């Protein structure tokens, strides 16, 4: 680092400390590290400082101080994002603002089917506290032991229950947001219906911190689903899995809460990560579905699952299957889904995608994309799995074992181009649930229609004209100050 | 009308005819009348012209022509709105742009659980066409035989199924919008999950045409609920009705599709409108609930309803009840709910509200508001009913029969002030589902927080700086051109 840059940095850090309570400002490089490295550990950056406010007023003060100093802010929740949305890319002029100290649950109201919670609350803790009141918050994703509810809202997180309960957007009743000018938008209502003009909170959901900092959230709660039936099914093809999904929606009256597709390789990968994992189904099948039906009260969910499987097996849509007889067995079935991810990670760097296409084109897309990969990269392996009921597939590509980092990187780069080229013919999305962040910005911008770019630019200009909020995330805005 | 205004008007009309295909422009006062009178017939306005485009390109051309002529546009769907959002208030400088000729259903895809439809399609026609494919679009409201899907989206319509399926916003997958600069925003995707940056379509949902003109919509479809159980229940109080709602959500595993609260007066009013309507329950009760559970496939909905009612009647939460034994009987039960509205209309002008409060405060609010009305207006009658599961109550006030129009108007004015004053203490909304339009603009502006006003102004300035889109609706923006 050059001396003059160092001087600027030290001066900025001193100014932040002078402007804010000392306890809020972290500048020690070692201490800052965990805030500046991404979830996968692929990227390590740095920052002018890490700010750790304890209250909404602290956040507002931080925003005002940063504006005055010409420093921009990268808001950060649990830092579990997969697209580098909460890691600085301009360390000399960016601070990380972590919400981790704002983790209070302000209220859980079972009678109102709602809760109000600060942005920094860890999702699994929130869910546990809600469950204590026999209520349920359905957002469920791999990172739930670390991610924050504020980050979930800011990225409009998806996960395994979207088919039943929708994306995070559909679970949000209200928001408190610190705006780029340091004022506070107070919209922590718990009203289920409120048509007083344009619904401003929608702007901040999925904006990845580019229009303001979400400091608290009010959310919808559901009755706790005390009955859950989980089954692992063997099928003849992805096409059959999609047919099964359609039939399950109708036959199970939309009480299905998860429907995950996995290829045969899932078991191989899962056992590479968890060697003792018992094999749940005897035979080998070209396709597997992990399916969950859940409910509460007077509906007999176990009976529904049994009758449904009886019917689809009689029709040959499902070849073999096992229904978990206990919570422990259900947990083991889910371990395959989760172990598959760990197994991929153990094989080293690989290409991860997060693609959605219209449901009726999903099987064609996977076939075309896997074929294109095998033609362009014959020594790589494709693994396609995911939330197929939502049209969302994670089509990943694993370089051969023993690849050097450079070789792997080259193959990943090529694989991404190959898959995206196929995707462009399918009216699909390069980001179904992970967001854009900095990782997918170039791919996003490349595909952005002029009318959308114009609207996004007008919006940014209107709400954050001085570009204090997460510049470099989602989109670059040349021409704005 | 003064001569110079007339000249301007005729000149504007001629210019519109010159700029647009002649067939698109309606200027005959008689022919324009139905586009310039509101649903209730309370307000009759006029316009420079009524434009009736046949295509998205027509709409874009109309927007460009209006901008050039300095004429603003009031977009109109089925003109069934209740808040004067689609009726001109500046007839000398506004045109109505009706979407009625853009009514094509572009696609219904049962395999994708989606449909794509033009804005001017009548809701009930859309639902019927969808039902032919054994699919279901759950939006349901009184005006469905006349309202347009574009208007539903533009106003984020609610209705009776919100408790299960959400507001219109949650049913929208994509939008096509003509923007205020005449460009076309093409977002007619049917993807269920798409986190490519800020979700721009959210801006136009519920904006009541103030940011652009919705020309087509892609929507979510569900399996058709071929089992429906309908029951009318007698209870001891609104408090018990709310307890029943909470219990029903849990016991029926959120398969409840309607839960309407009615006071005893509902039956009196309904029979004033439909004298032959049979009385479904023998006794008189302080509170009634019309409840519907629905589903498809292997879940036995009739059995669920029976077991649920058995259980809540045993506990004394429900005193008496009747389950419809046929579709015709179910229809009769719904006629009470609908007849109650007609009965109110027959009694002449009255105050209508569309209020929401947090669910756990609903009973207190209704008690306080009704008491305040009876103190301030002892000769008026309050009728509180509605979608109580959503915290949404229509607390209406009927002036005494025989009131002169002026007397009635004075009482309505006073009743509104009284109810709104109570509401302000309850963190409620003056518009749960009807929107703001022009009717509620003053009440909305009066209660608008500065940070919200600033954001709404910035948004309007960013997207519609020349104020061509529905000025006077929702909010006035002094200082914008």
Automatic annotation (TrEMBL), chains A, B:
Species whose genome carries this gene: Rhizobium herbae
Record-annotated FAD-binding PCMH-type domain positions: 43-224
Keyword set includes Lipid biosynthesis: no
Record keywords, A-Z: FAD, Flavoprotein
Presence of the UniProt keyword Electron transport in the record: no
Family of the protein in this entry: Belongs to the FAD-binding oxidoreductase/transferase type 4 family.
Name listed for the protein in its UniProt record: FAD/FMN-containing dehydrogenase
